[in-house]
Design goal:
Radius of gyration of chain A: 18 Å
Strand content of chain C: 5-15%
Radius of gyration of chain C: 23 Å
Number of strands of chain C: 11
Shape of chain C: globular
Number of domains of chain A: 2
CATH architecture of the largest domain in chain C: 3-Layer(aba) Sandwich
CATH topology of the largest domain in chain C: Rossmann fold
Strand order of the largest sheet of chain A: 2-3-1-4-5
Structural class of chain C: alpha/beta
Oligomer: heterotrimer
Number of strands of chain A: 5
Number of helices of chain A: 7
Helix content of chain A: 40-55%
CATH class of the largest domain in chain C: Alpha Beta
Number of helices of chain C: 20
Chains: A alpha+beta, B alpha/beta, C alpha/beta
CATH architecture of the largest domain in chain A: 3-Layer(aba) Sandwich
Largest interface: A-C, 44 and 57 residues
Number of domains of chain C: 3
CATH superfamily of the largest domain in chain C: NADH-ubiquinone oxidoreductase 51kDa subunit
CATH topology of the largest domain in chain A: Glutaredoxin
Largest sheet of chain A: 5 strands, mixed
Largest sheet of chain C: 5 strands, mixed
Order of helices and strands of chain A: HHHHEHHEEEEH
Helix content of chain C: 40-55%
Distance between the termini of chain A: 30 Å
Distance between the termini of chain C: 51 Å
Chain lengths: 160, 697, 440
């Protein structure tokens, strides 16, 4: 399995980041970055990461279900993560989530038919003082209102 | 028993439930409690495996600690004041059980584990009989991971015992954990199935009914069975297997009380491969060849026919050849050679030789305490494995060495023709091509081994004949205490040698008065009668062949008379394992129409009018104990299920100079000669038939 | 750049550079504002002297547990032949907490300098900044800063001719609150599931790869350069006795002006809410107050107003200072819903390792869901309190306590809100058949 030149370079650096015989340390970051490129953690990726990190595949499998950001099913092109944890909840995070759900027509961990959006109700993402917060892929959006979210989602939907 | 170099141990004194107790500093509190009789319950704690502190059942009260402490991870210290059954402790345990039972399916009435379930026992002891849980339970469907391993996640309490026994105990690491929180569950290494040793250790160690055996599940309730502890009849390691028997049928094999030499170890053969016993092809009637066809006849007709043939041949001065079995008991093999030598007056006697024990005993002449036991493998400071894929061919011995490495930092060295599992923790793992190269590799290791305080050398048929003496000379050259194990293949391969099933050696390795033919020569010699007991040497050119066997092997199929014999699980008697440890079989079941080989021989002798002594196992054992050196093993030990090592000779052994006859069958974890072919459990797993030196762990 | 308008009541020590006009957090900017000088000063000091200054400063771990940092560093066996490691806990995920983000985003070299000083103390040659996966952009920022530091000679071999070697890497998490617990973080950093480890041994003795490890929160490391700059005594004097310096405090929830502010330890709650935070939203009454992340026991408004933001003051009131994530709830807040949302989080984040946390959080979440939906009974309210109590102090790691403590306090202090949501009068027995059916 080969990845883009950028990712290959990243992996090379990653594996070299840990002491001799400790390449298992690279498993989780490698899965994260590879998942971004492939869209999901595929069985082939599990085998590849196991090979590159010199661990039995089951040790890769073990972490996939443990970490909530690793996923086996592809997500939408834009993965909309709405925080409803306590600080966001207090200032309308839950309403924002329901609004997003209604607007996109999908529920928690679902993807729109066109594959553009997926939605997830997430735990605290560390934007509590700028709540309610939404993270789309890796981009944070703060003090989000239903109106702001509409504008944001509409702009993403437009072909670029 | 060899022990590792003792280190200075300081002791501490503490109080447990008001009783003062002294223990070595650093001992885990839970162990000290256990020794004192103050049993602390635990699901995740399992002696010998890594600590988890996950189940929180072993919480105890320790003065000066603000919170209850997990006694499985607290080392004892001076002046500790511990209470293991105080109201706070009892309440905590009840609360833990309430949590555990919240998502537990409570399908105890149909659960295989019902009646021998640790969760049931704990609930019985600490209450939580009423549930306050009125929510919907987490449920996932049961999964089948192999023909013999099933996993029911809702029953799983996540104690991680299975994960640890597989990884740490076996060195396989086929189990892991997936998901987290209340959804966490155990997963197999191949996604939806297992590729492993199929040893079932995970099932045995599971405290609840989460891991169940494909061979046993939903067949019966544990209390409906008789539990018969006997010796596994497959490989030479001599593990105790407890056969669960209901109405003359073996329902399961497991490691119920861990009382055997094998402790908590048992491989798939001991656990599942009892099923050959009731295979539909099992012979249950004597057969006589009539008009070219083997036809069923009565026992009396068959015995009379054999006796008549033997007597007539003897009267006519005809020739005999006798081949004994490697699963037969010591008593049977002893009686067989006596029958041959005294009754039939023939010296042509042999068996399937798989390891050069005579050459080892000869080379060790004059030395004492040089034969290692299975305990030694767990306690020695170092071991050298030569020419064997131990984890495949001698799984219990491999387990002992691995445990020794884990618990005592023992160094293991391997010199093998290919990669072996021991390599993952071995101090050195060398690969050789030829025997000459083997000794060159040993020379490479010499300096490192010289630095060891002691050594056990295990060697396969790769070292035989004159090479054995060369190996012992090598051992001598190290200048340290060395013990040896000559690896042999089957459950009583060693006993067959000790009992004198050799053309040149009688019982106890004494020179036979007359030398006879070895097995391959017998087959080619055009003998008048060939008598095969529990072996499958192939069709020779004998004029008349009598076979005693459980199955119609190729040899039996070509025979003139076939007598259906009982299996090791159907008879008494003793067997000797690869380390020379003698253990007693216990009959678990009977198969209608079969007879134990000893009884068959006795009846033939009676028909012939021969007096070879009383043919019960006990009487023959008495004779063996008085006549075979080293076999005067303490009866109370073996009668109560223990093992006693026999050192049958300490002196020169007249060798026959035919090392080429020593050939291991190279069985894997999933093959076991004829018995293995008739075990559907063994042949059903994806790993069957397995391959040596292909370990990819 | 992410920060709020500075407030005059703030004491800007860690955040002093980020408000300078044109400050962009690059190595050049950092150096221009005196950056990395404290590392060079540390090179001239003995490790014991550095530890001494940190001890004098009364710096306590800023991740939430508040363990004295100097003491923690002192536990590292510096003579051990094993390699030593520096590990930065940037897995900030305690609900209500968003302060490490501000530090890494705006001044990453401050963190690098803190790591260098710690490395100097224990003789570590490798370090890792473990950053939660959701903060990918911060990982990118951190990596850029590390690259800059290598180029500028502040990382690598023989740093600035001091003979000190130190390699630092950013390491991505992948979504697991539990990995904020230090031993679970180490497991995760080793590529495993983030299950906590049995302690002792503590990370100082057997941490990353079973080697001695200095493991602290981002803010803790970031505080160290200023301690050397000001001197431990002066730094300590910023705060109060037993709790020195400043704390990045995240005002979240029903504030008029939420934000991250750097306040001295012992800052009065009343002043913090009314002046720094601009008062309670809409001038309403404060119903409840959580001082430092959702793991802390909840205080009522009345309890909270007279307190100060420091470890002892909060402990005396029955709560904890925690991570600095202040959560303010005004009188409109539905406390049952709040309790449910908090438990939803812990049930989601329980690693599943030990029984009471794994089963307890899941059960409590189901119970609270029913209570919130109005299908609970009076007995369920007691059960919530009881189950939380049964978890408390018995779990493998502090996550169980973190779930139990807020729950117990909410049930105790706001029981009337639970009762108001009951499906039927309190006196009806719960064992009636129709109810059992309705519970499914």
């Amino acid at each position: 399995m080969t990845f883009s030149p950028d990712l290959e370079a990243r992996f090379e650096k990653l594996v070299a980041s840990y002491p001799e015989g400790r390449t298992r340390s690279a498993v989780i970051p490698m899965l994260m970055y590879a998942q971004d490129e492939l869209g999901a953690v595929t069985p082939e990726l599990v085998a590849e990461v196991a090979k590159r990190c010199k661990v039995p595949p089951i040790q890769v499998e073990e972490v996939i279900g443990y970490y909530s950001m690793l996923h086996r099913k592809p997500q939408g092109k834009y993965h909309v993560q709405v925080c409803t944890n306590i600080s966001c909840l207090l200032v309308g995070g839950e309403e924002l989530y329901h609004h997003a759900s209604k607007k996109l027509g999908i529920g928690h961990k679902q993807t729109t038919a066109d594959g553009i959006f997926s939605l997830e109700e997430v735990e605290c993402m560390g934007a509590c003082s700028w709540a309610p917060a939404v993270e789309i892929n890796y981009d944070f959006h703060h003090h989000v209102t239903a109106e702001k979210l509409d504008v944001l989602l509409d702009s993403l939907k437009k072909p670029q | 028993m060899m022990t590792a170099t003792p280190t200075e141990v300081t002791t501490v004194t503490l109080s447990i439930n008001g009783q003062s107790v002294t223990a070595p500093a650093g001992t885990l509190l839970i162990e000290v409690c256990k020794k004192l009789g103050a049993e602390v319950p635990a699901f995740c704690y399992y002696e010998g495996f890594s600590l988890q502190a996950a189940c929180r059942m072993c919480l105890v009260e320790i003065e000066k600690f603000p919170k209850l402490q997990a006694s499985c991870t607290i080392p004892v210290s001076e002046g500790m004041v511990v209470r293991t059954e105080s109201p706070a402790v009892v309440a905590a345990r009840k609360d833990m059980l309430e949590f555990l039972l919240s998502n537990h399916p409570l399908d105890c009435p149909v659960c295989d584990k019902g009646g021998e379930c640790e969760l049931q026992d704990m609930t019985f002891r600490y209450g939580a009989g009423e549930s306050r849980f009125t929510e919907i339970k987490v449920h996932t469907p049961e999964k089948q991971w192999s023909p013999v391993v099933f996993y029911d996640a809702p029953r799983c309490i996540l104690c991680y015992r299975c994960v640890r026994v597989c990884d740490e105990g076996l060195g396989v690491g086929a189990l892991g954990i997936q998901y987290r929180g209340v959804g966490a569950e155990i997963i197999p290494n191949m996604g939806d199935h297992l590729n492993c040793d199929e040893c079932g250790a995970c099932i045995d160690i599971c405290p609840v009914g989460a891991l169940t055996s494909g061979a046993y599940r939903y067949k019966t309730r544990p209390w409906e069975m008789n539990h018969v502890g006997t010796v596994c009849t497959h490989c030479s390691n001599g593990c105790k297997t407890t056969l669960g028997v209901r109405t003359d049928e073996i329902i399961r094999g497991n490691n119920r009380d861990h009382s055997g030499i094998n402790g908590e170890f048992l491989c798939g053969k001991g656990r599942y491969a009892f099923d050959f016993n009731k295979h539909e092809d099992r012979l249950t009637s004597p057969l006589i060849r009539k008009d070219g066809q083997l036809v069923e006849v009565s026992w009396s007709e068959a015995l009379k026919a054999v006796a008549t043939k033997f007597s007539e041949t003897q009267a006519a001065g005809g020739s005999f050849g006798v081949i004994g079995g490697v699963h037969s008991t010591n008593e049977e093999n002893y009686f067989l050679q006596k029958f041959a030598r005294q009754g039939l007056k023939t010296a042509n006697i042999d068996h399937q030789r798989t390891g050069d024990v005579p050459a080892l005993l000869d080379a060790l002449s004059g030395k004492s305490d040089v034969l290692a036991t299975t305990d030694d493998l767990y306690n020695t400071a170092a071991a050298l494995v030569i020419g064997s894929d131990l984890a495949q061919q001698h799984p219990f011995l491999a387990y002992q060495l691995r445990a020794n490495g884990r618990h005592h930092n023992a160094r293991v060295y391997t010199v093998t023709p290919g990669k072996v599992r021991e390599a993952d923790y071995a101090a050195a793992s060398l690969i050789y091509g030829s025997t000459a190269e083997l000794f060159a590799k040993l020379d490479e290791l010499r300096d490192r081994l010289k630095a060891e305080p002691e050594l056990v050398i295990l060697f396969s048929d790769a070292v035989k004949g004159a090479d054995v003496a060369k190996l012992v000379a090598y051992g001598d050259s190290l200048g340290i205490k060395v013990k040896y194990v000559a690896l042999v293949d089957y459950s009583n391969s060693r006993g067959a040698l000790d009992m004198g099933l050799l053309p040149t050696l009688g019982p106890g390795y004494h020179a036979a008065p007359v030398s006879g033919l070895a097995a391959p020569d017998m087959l080619a010699a055009g003998l008048d009668v060939l008598w095969v007991m529990g072996a499958d040497p192939g069709k020779g050119n004998a004029k008349f062949t009598v076979v005693q066997d459980m199955f119609l092997t190729p040899t039996a199929a070509a025979a003139d008379i076939v007598l259906p014999s009982a299996s090791a699980y159907e008879k008494s008697g003793t067997v000797t394992n690869v380390c020379g440890q003698v253990q007693k079989l216990k009959p678990a079941v009977r198969t209608m129409g079969t007879k134990p080989d000893l009884e068959i021989m006795g009846l033939i002798a009676r028909e012939m009018g021969l007096n070879l002594g009383i043919w019960t196992h006990d009487h023959v054992l008495t004779e063996i104990r008085s006549s075979v050196a080293g076999y005067n093993v303490p009866l109370p030990v073996i009668q109560t299920g223990g093992a006693a090592q026999a050192q049958p000779v300490n002196g020169r052994v007249p060798l026959d100079g035919r090392p080429e006859l020593v050939q291991s069958a190279q069985d894997t974890l999933f093959t076991s000669g004829t018995l293995g072919r008739y075990s559907k459990a063994l042949t059903s797993v994806i790993e069957y038939p397995g391959k040596l030196y292909s370990d990819n762990q | 750049m992410l920060f709020n308008e500075p407030h005059p009541l703030e004491t800007r020590v860690l955040t002093k550079r980020m408000h300078e006009p044109g400050y962009n957090g690059t190595v050049e900017a950092y150096e221009r504002y005196g950056g990395y000088k404290q590392f060079l000063k540390a090179v001239e000091m003995t490790p014991d002297d550095i530890i001494g200054e940190v001890k004098t400063s009364n710096l306590r771990g800023r991740g939430g547990a508040g363990f004295p940092t100097g003491m923690k560093w002192g536990f590292v066996p510096r003579q051990s032949p094993k390699p030593k490691y520096i590990v930065v806990n940037g897995d900030e995920s305690e609900p209500g907490t968003c302060k490490d983000r501000v530090l890494i985003e705006n001044d990453p070299h401050l963190l690098i300098e803190g790591c260098l000083i710690a490395a100097r103390v224990v003789g570590a040659e490798r370090g890792y900044v473990y950053i939660r996966g959701e903060y990918r952009y911060l990982i990118d920022i951190m990596e850029r800063a590390i690259d800059e530091a290598y180029r500028a000679g502040w990382l690598g071999k023989n740093i600035k001719g001091t003979g000190i070697n130190f390699d630092l890497r950013a390491h991505s998490g992948a979504g697991a609150y539990e990995c904020g617990e230090e031993s679970a973080l180490l497991e995760s950093l080793e590529g495993k599931r983030g299950n906590p480890r049995i302690r002792p041994p503590f990370p100082a003795v057997a941490g990353l790869y079973a080697s001695p490890t200095v493991l602290n929160n981002v803010e803790t490391f970031a505080a160290v350069p200023s301690i050397l700059e000001m001197g431990g005594k002066a730094w300590a004097d910023l705060g109060i006795e037993k709790a020195g310096g400043t704390k990045l405090t995240c005002l979240t929830g029903h504030f008029n002006k939420p934000g991250v502010y750097e306040l001295t330890l012992g800052f009065p709650v009343e002043k913090m809410i009314n002046e720094v935070g601009g008062g309670v939203r809409g001038g309403r009454k404060m119903k409840a107050f959580i001082p430092g992340g959702s793991s802390c026991p909840v205080l009522t408004g009345d309890e909270a107003w007279p307190l100060n933001m420091d470890y002892d003051s909060m402990a005396k009131a029955g709560s904890m200072l925690g991570s600095g994530g202040v959560i303010l709830m005004d009188e409109t807040t539905d406390m049952v819903k709040a309790a449910l949302r908090i438990m939803h989080f812990y049930a989601h984040e329980s690693c599943g390792w030990c029984i009471p946390c794994r089963e307890g959080t899941a059960w409590l979440k189901k119970l609270l869901t029913r209570l919130d939906a109005g299908s609970g009974s009076a007995r369920d309210i007691d059960l919530v309190g009881d189950l939380a109590k049964n978890m408390l102090g018995r779990t493998f790691c502090p996550l169980g306590d973190a779930a139990a403590l807020p729950t117990m306090s909410i049930v105790k202090k706001f029981r009337h809100e639970f009762e108001a949501k009951l499906s039927r009068p309190v006196s009806v027995p719960v064992t009636s058949p129709d109810q059992l059916v309705s519970l499914g």
